[in-house]
Design brief:
By secondary structure, this protein is an alpha+beta fold. The chain is built from three helices and seven strands.
Length: about 160
């Protein structure tokens, strides 16, 4: 198996592309409220929310333990409503030379489609490939719960 891999997942949601783009770009600190079983927090380590070059620290749950993933915002495309994040620290870097996630929020009817693209390069062949089904299930779980959060009345998620 190649050291360089790519996985794509498309998820249909009821929230508009603008709302989904906005929370992931400008308010990722609200995302753990939607998925407390997967994410404990998102904190800004450097820069400003919604700006390229900013560094985010995510505390997530894996195998019942809190783990940290540190990401830099690599690109924001306002016109195409996409964001690219690069993992730069935490447990991911124990297994990967690089790991990037691009999310694009595409209008569809009254809702939207979230296109989630993960591309990564393992450090060596001895590292097992991530299970694409488990990864896709986790991504869908997070996106669907963020969708539900965005559909709640504003008084419940300011």
């Amino acid at each position: 198996m190649s050291l360089v891999q790519k996985q794509e997942t498309d998820i249909e949601v009821k929230a508009s592309a603008n709302k989904m783009f906005d929370i992931w770009k400008d308010k990722p600190y609200q995302i753990p409220d939607a998925v407390p079983d997967k994410l404990q927090s998102c904190e800004l380590q450097e820069g400003e929310w919604g700006k390229v070059g900013s560094v985010l620290s995510w505390t997530h749950i894996k195998d019942g333990k809190a783990r940290v993933a540190i990401e830099r915002v690599e690109a924001i495309d306002e016109e195409n409503k996409s964001i690219t994040l690069r993992k730069i620290g935490g447990e991911f870097m124990e297994h990967f030379k690089s790991f990037n996630v691009t999310m694009q929020f595409i209008p569809k009817g009254e809702g939207s489609v979230v296109k989630w693209i993960s591309d990564y390069e393992k450090l060596h062949d001895g590292i097992p490939d991530p299970n694409p089904q488990i990864a896709a299930e986790s991504i869908v779980h997070i996106i669907k719960n963020v969708d539900a959060l965005l559909l709640k009345p504003k008084t419940q998620h300011a």
